[in-house]
Amino acid sequence: MELVKILTIFTTIDVMRNKFEGKITEYIGNLVALRHFNLSHNDLTGSIPSLIGKMSVLEALDPSFNHLEGEIPQQLSSIYTLARLNLSHNQLSGHIPQGPQFSTFDNDSYIGNTRLCGNPLSRKCENDIGTPDQEEDENDNSFSGFTWEALVIGYSCGVVPTFSTGYLMLSAGKPKWLAQIIAWEQGLKIRRIEIQRQN
């Protein structure tokens, strides 16, 4: 059955288990009111169209059990309403996009795609994996700003001048209120010592 024109006001399309073949058309992005889209268990090939990112209210996408290949479009990560994603049992490859919604999907969303890598899969992408020496160098570089030399310089530039200035100000009797408080406390200590000696 051929549809001459697909209504863009559809909110749900479920065409699972229909033996559909061919590629997913780019025009799918025009279905801007679509919330649930199930293409699973067909014989679809090609890649997932990047224009699917225009479906800004999409809540569930399931093209599992097909023969889709290529990378998962980064545009999918911009669909903030996407609550359910099942890309399992295809031939997808590359890095799994990162984004607020993608962090909520677990491994089950990607099972059967042996060439996918990145979170949440245990398989890391090549550009994410560094040699142990590189990781140690990065750790050393990240810590290099907090060496003992930096601490000494910070201490010298901050604490020493502050105490020196405070000592000079108190010696000169300024500010008067602070000098009077300190002199009063010192006077109390001297009196206590004298009382203790008399006893």
Give a topology summary.
Layout: E1 12-14, E2 21-23, E3 36-38, E4 43-45, E5 60-62, E6 69-70, E7 84-85, E8 91-95, E9 115-117, H1 132-143, H2 148-171, H3 176-198
Parallel strand pairs: 1-3, 2-4, 3-5, 5-7, 6-8, 8-9
* Mean pLDDT score: 80
Oligomer: single chain
Helical fraction equals 25-40%
- Strand order, sheet with most strands: 1-3-5-7
Give start-end ranges of low-pLDDT stretches.
Answer: 131-135
In terms of structural class, how would the helical and strand content be classed? alpha/beta
CATH class of the largest domain: Alpha Beta
Q: What is the element string, with H for helices and E for strands?
A: EEEEEEEEEHHH
The number of domains is: 2
CATH topology of the largest domain: Leucine-rich repeat, LRR (right-handed beta-alpha superhelix)
Describe this structure as you would to a colleague.
It is a single chain. The chain has two domains: 12-128, Leucine-rich repeat, LRR (right-handed beta-alpha superhelix) (Alpha-Beta Horseshoe), CATH 3.80.10; 132-198, no CATH class. 30% of the residues lie in helices and 14% in strands. The protein has helices at residues 132-143, 148-171, 176-198; strands at residues 12-14, 21-23, 36-38, 43-45, 60-62, 69-70, 84-85, 91-95, 115-117. The chain has a four-stranded parallel beta sheet with strand order 1-3-5-7, with no helix packed on it. It is rod-shaped, with a radius of gyration of 34 Å.
